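FW: tagging you since you asked about this chain on Friday. Here's the raw sequence from the shared folder, copied in full. Didn't touch anything.
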Amino acid sequence: MGPRSTLFPVRHVIALDVGGTGMKAALVGDGGELLHQDRRPTGRERGPEAVVEGILDFAEELRARGVGRFGEPAVAAGIAVPGIVDEADGVAVYSANLGWRDVPLRDLLAARLGVPVALGHDVRTGGLAEGRIGAGRGADRFLFVPLGTGIAGAIGIDGRVEAGAHGFAGEIGHIVVRPGGAPCPCGQRGCLERYASAAAVSDAWAAAGGGPGADAADCAKAVASGRPDAVRIWQEAVDALADGLVTALTLLDPRTLIIGGGLAEAGETLFSPLRDAVRRRVTFQKVPSLVPAALGDTAGCLGAGLLARDLLETADPTEVTA
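HL: got it, structure written out here
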């Protein structure tokens, strides 16, 4: 996004979305507008301590950019990270991808920036954005399910996302849909994400004839052209996903079910059979609206901005800790 000059101070927050390979960042105005966007590699090959220092440096650069372009520093910051996150205490507990354990990331950022900071789980933060300003806007209850390397979920209730008592709420990818099935790294067998994630479909299609390097998008194209092996693999994934989603909607009764991630990019190749499969499985349950995510890979960053703006409603912006 190009430079923008201003004659008057512009109140804004810093938003950071940290992934296994890259970081996305934005300066977000009071109306939710993206005033500035930036990306850079996470640098996980340098080790967890270097990753944390890179996050802090990136945030400090964003603060300086805000002062230079908008006449004042950011008044708060929000950051979304993967893995196990203790949002209440502001601690990044564990991430296999980034290699860190028990990082007090909220306090480290607050000390570096001098403003209140909110820390969130990447999927729940993305779900917050989809629920408030994306595909779930206006829904009092929603479930956001991104289908990527794994499958996670975010349970939306009246404009917020439920973390659970221990930070594990929404882990729909570890609902067992095929008892005794494929082993999962979590220790169970037959977990949903072993059958219906983008990674699972990619692996199945590569093994079945898609060739080395074939991915879920290639499988979706083969389904559209009617290749029998692709149709079989795709239907198995859809059936497993429908089983997991019906279990979730039986427990949660969402008004809107938002599907995102790489597999959702197949559009109606996914959504048409998935809606049919869900309808076939329900009995007394109400079928929610089943819709594609609207915000793409910006959801985590936009959600981090929402977390930061929420702090301003409950805390004095001059305080350092959230």
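FW: The two ends are 29 Å apart (CA to CA).
HL: agreed, and The chain has two domains: 12-125+298-314, 138-294.
FW: great, closing this out.
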